[in-house]
From TrEMBL:
Identification of the protein by name: Sialic acid synthase
Organism: Caerostris extrusa
Alphabetical list of Pfam families matching this protein: NeuB
Gene Ontology molecular function: any one: N-acylneuraminate-9-phosphate synthase activity
InterPro entries (alphabetical): Aldolase_TIM (IPR013785), PseI-like (IPR051690), PseI/NeuA/B-like_N (IPR013132)
GO biological process: carbohydrate biosynthetic process
Domain PseI/NeuA/B-like: start-end pairs: 6-81
Amino acid sequence: MASKTTYKELFPDAVIGYSGHESGTEISLAAVSIGAKILERHITLDHTLKGSDHKSSLNEPQLKSLVSEIRRIERAMGCHIKTLQSCEMQCKKKS
């Protein structure tokens, strides 16, 4: 299994993306959590429409949920620059 940083190591100047053609959003979320900055997902108005892409496409509520979860992951990952937050001031004063 390749490390989660393989593409970033091989292509340090490239923006890493993921093209998802699976049902659900878990794999797309995993891609974001390891650094994907661009996602390609198909959308549909109806999963039962004719054509192979509709079954694995996202409908509007699923797309909204995916975006919301991506934003949640981004907040959880934080920033590599650490600064003292106002809510931490009281604890710092104790030390």
